[in-house]
Design a protein that fits this description.
This protein is α/β, with parallel strands linked by helices. The protein has a single domain, classed as Rossmann fold (3-Layer(aba) Sandwich), CATH 3.40.50.1820. The chain contains ten helices and eight strands. α3 packs across α4 and α5 crosses α6. It starts with 13 loop residues before the first helix and ends with a helix.
């Protein structure tokens, strides 16, 4: 894992790190439900769209946007009902929400622009449903820490945060990150805790119920682009039956590429950012050459 990787620059606080990266982004808005969806863009080059996880926001990619933006135009939305984005139209499954996001991508990038897409956790589920609806503009799909593949999910009983304050609230956030998001407790630093607090306060859309289905597997069966599935080795929603998840994906996408990052947990893009960034870029480059 990348424990030696600093989360701040010099004496920069977590708040300053987030503000600096946010200020470097180009911000756009597209329709979402009765309101708007907020998008952030960094860098230049071939577009790479990143979908964050459930009860999250673009900050799930805080350790990735700058390194990836040295090679790509990186586009991070706050998914509907999360972060700064308004709630989507009511839906019983992820497909209509994915349709709203797909329309947003076309508006942000321009109709017909080709792009690669990576989604984390709930973002992987939404990305898979989007792939079933997308045309040739979607060049590749990378699923990170994905559930909803029709397999039992290990129970992860989280600590209640609502109603807590001060040190008790910080302790609850820390424990939840340790239970679900990371493999090594040392990965729960001040930046991770700051992001977790923001995400908890701003999450209105509840995606957890979608994770216990086979809807991602069913949707990604219709994808017409190369598909990859990536986990941290100790991902709490996949370990110890990761090979069953790879087999489930290959049952509908036989050519799918799969990868494991040693020692990392569910939030692999944060906990093992250096390795994750290099692996994702390498995968995308090989697809371009192919």
């Amino acid at each position: 894992m990348d424990h030696a990787m600093p989360t701040t620059t010099g004496t920069e606080t977590p708040e300053a790190t987030i503000a600096r990266i946010d200020a470097a982004a180009r911000r756009m808005e597209t329709p979402c439900g009765e309101g708007r969806m907020v998008w952030r863009l960094w860098g230049s080059g071939e577009p790479l769209v990143l979908f964050h996880g459930g009860s999250g926001c673009w900050k799930h990619w805080i350790r990735n946007v700058e390194p990836l933006a040295r090679h790509r135009t990186v586009i991070c939305p706050d998914l509907p009902g999360l972060g700064e984005s308004d709630m989507p139209h009511p839906a019983l499954d992820p497909a209509p929400i994915a349709g709203e996001v797909l329309a947003g991508i076309a508006q942000v990038l321009g109709q017909g622009t080709r792009y690669d897409l990576a989604g984390f956790s709930f973002g992987a589920l939404l990305a898979g449903h989007l792939s079933a609806q997308a045309g040739p503009e979607l060049r590749s799909l990378t699923l990170v820490g994905a559930g909803a593949l029709g397999l039992p999910r290990p129970r992860t009983e989280l600590v209640k945060v609502r109603g807590t304050e001060g040190e008790a609230r910080i302790a609850a956030h820390r424990r939840n990150l340790e239970i679900l998001m990371v493999a090594d407790p040392r990965s729960v630093d001040d930046l991770a805790l700051t992001i977790q607090e923001y995400n908890t306060v701003h999450a209105r859309f509840r995606s957890r119920g979608f994770a216990h289905t086979a809807s991602l597997k069913d949707a990604v069966a219709q994808a017409r682009c190369p598909v990859a599935l990536l986990y941290g080795e100790r991902d709490a929603i996949a370990w110890p039956d990761m090979e069953l998840r790879f087999a489930a994906l290959r049952s509908v996408q036989p050519a799918a590429w799969t990868g494991v990052i040693p020692g990392a947990g569910h939030w692999v893009a944060y906990e093992a950012a250096v390795t994750f960034n290099a692996m994702l870029l390498d995968m995308l480059e090989r697809r371009l050459r192919g």
